[in-house]
Amino acid sequence: MAGDEELERTVRKLAIEHAETRWLALRLDDDVKEIRQDLRTMRAEQNERFDVIDGRLNSIDGGLQAHDGRFDSTDAVLRSLHQMVGQVLERLPEEPQS
After folding, report:
1. What is this structure's pTM?
2. What does the DSSP 8-state code read for residue 14?
């Protein structure tokens, strides 16, 4: 009989350990699901931030292109003025040297 009681205690102990193991496994599954959801949320937030940043960079790029156009226009005007001044200076009579 002592062997039967020992066997019964061992079986009860194993049943308890099995229940604890199942509970821990379920808890682990819940934790994994929660972490995955957190990762999805973080990825979505990052994508939104990157979209905002990308929009800002595109806006800045458009502004820079507009400024480049203005600088090119200003540069062309300055070159034209430089040529005109050069032509005027060529047409001026030379001053007599004393």
Report:
1. 0.52
2. H
